[in-house]
Amino acid sequence: MGTVWDWNPGAHGAFSTDGGTTWTGFAAEPEAGKRGGRVAITADGSHILWTLRGAQAVVSADRGATWKLAQGLPEGAKISEWANVDIQPAADRVNANKLYVLDAMNGAVYRSTDGGISFKETWSSLPSKGEWEMATSSITAVPNYEGHVWITTGDSLQRSTDSAQTFVKIAGIQEAYAVGFGKPLSGAKYPTVYLLGKIGGKKAIFRSHDEAKSFVRINDDDHQFAGATHITGDPRVESRVYLGTGGRGILYGMPK
Fold it and tell me: Does CATH place domain 1-169 in 3.40.50.720?
């Protein structure tokens, strides 16, 4: 494994209660917070789960004033600074007691039903990844649908509808790097699915209005945006999609 690095001094996490207009740094943080990681916040905002790079995940019930070890999760691996975080969290978007964690390096998924206090492994059939492969590993929960969890593994897009108890591979997806959700198409119930991946031999940006039964491409060869790494739809504006480009800015568009 590679070298573990430290971020700059100061708070390494913060919360906002006004939609991101202002932020308050966590009053305390674990020692490993200076090496970064990922956070997920329960649906009611009561608990914050922080999965740490190279350390054990922690959970706070007081907006970062105090932290306790999350029980039942593997410790984050000592990975290189350029590698994606291996222990990745997602919070159920309906049930505030449920959180999910992807262990991308070992191909396992964990679930909590007590707000992140403790976890149990629920699925272990995903492909394991080396640190150079984890850039395309991600886990995302679906707005307004309890227990719906989607995972990209680089070589597949997988979906659970039973709170990560089981996963099904989506047919026709050759590669999947990131997935996100936006406001449903008029007349549809399920959120629009946005995908960075490869379908029909073409690496591109795709959209589905039918729960990933079919996808259409929404970019072209002249608009690859320097290699997008994250994608999500707007929850309030139909067809608006946002792209994260890994340090090259955040883009949004409204493709037809």
Answer: no
